[in-house]
Amino acid sequence: MVVCILINTLLLSLDRYPDDPKETLIMEKINIFFTVIFTVEMIIKLFAIGFKHFFMSMFNLFDCLVVISGLVDIFLA
Description:
Layout: H1 2-12, H2 21-49, H3 51-54, H4 58-76
């Protein structure tokens, strides 16, 4: 999972101005792909350790916040 985070961070840092429309479309699809991966990972972890234990960890809360913000970004774009 760390590899996915690093690749996603690297790809998101490639954003620049002025942007190429084709490149922007590809980056949006890659962002959706990684957001889906992180969402599935969070849901699996949520059910694996249970709601109570999941939300006791500050790391899991941060992970949940990042995933939700990624989903909001996708739906508002």
